[in-house]
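Study this:
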Amino acid sequence: MQGQRTVRRSGRAKATRRQEVPQDYSILFIILFLILTGLVILYSTSSYEAAIDFNGDSMHYLRSQAMATALGLFLMLITTRIPVHLYDRLYQVIYGVSLLLVILVKFIGTERNGAKRWIYIGPVSLQPAEISKIAVIVITAHIICRMDRRKLRTLRGLIMVMLPSLAQAAAIYVITKNLSSAIIVVAIAAGMIFVASRGYKWFVLGAAGIGAAAYAIVTWILKNGGNGNFRGKRILAWRDPAAYADGIGFQTLQALYGIGSGGIFGKGLGESMQKLGFIPEAQNDMIFSIICEELGLFGAISIIVLFMILTWRFMVIAMNARDLYSSLLVVGVMTHIAVQVILNIAVVTNTIPNTGISLPFISFGGSSVLFLLIEVGVVLRVMRDIRQES
């Protein structure tokens, strides 16, 4: 009788687990909706500037993004067929290639808008910092799975796990001057460690230390008038964008005008005024302000809610993954997308200084959408393994 009760309990637990496993269409629907919405918003945002810059070709940015998205969806489908533990066996290769590509930017990189962050592989333009994010997810999951949990709660253990991400972040910042990607790379590793570790003492102390250091730096910069440094001037513009309206604060101020003028339901798709040359490169980092202007608070909140639902679905998959390594891969992808969304919206709303962070699946950027979709493919593979095991 006891054995029968155990079997029944086991059956009920398995049935409950099967109910918790998300269906394929739920995540795919959200991703596809974000992508299609992003393409529509991208065209609305970029058509005017594209027509001026590319001899009347108003679809230039849309065409480029659509091609990268189509390739990304194809690679996403391929990734769903690759066993996740293959990444574990190839973690050194993945990490080494990503670091090498970042270094190559220094020698063969292409400069755009004053930033040297891209390299060309044949006809394809690639931003190595996006590959670094995947590499950090893979290597951090590998190290955590092979480290004693008690050691992971020590400062030495945390530093050992963080070293690969810190090395990537340093290379990205020093070579490409891309502070936002460097921050995201470190945040991905920190998020994965936070989930895997049961001790949060060092995280609390670290957060307090970073907060105190940031406060001290900002205070010093404000007292010294930016000290002539570009990033220092950005902090000055963050505190008072109107005072720098004719320079570094212009983009932020125009983005805030766009957000404020949208109201509850917006001016209507395609009716933005700020995209008509007032916000430089609006299709990139500041596209959320155009969403607010054309679709209003309702449209902006709808986009945020979609990202929240996507994050929740990733969390469910991570909790039900068949092993720790698979779970950590999903946590890494979830952290990447969540941090990037939060930072982008914070920048556009002037909550933090402008650091140039794109909005996932929506902002213009072929490398970004391509590798984000590959990461989604990894998550879908983990989900597929759960369903097969159930």
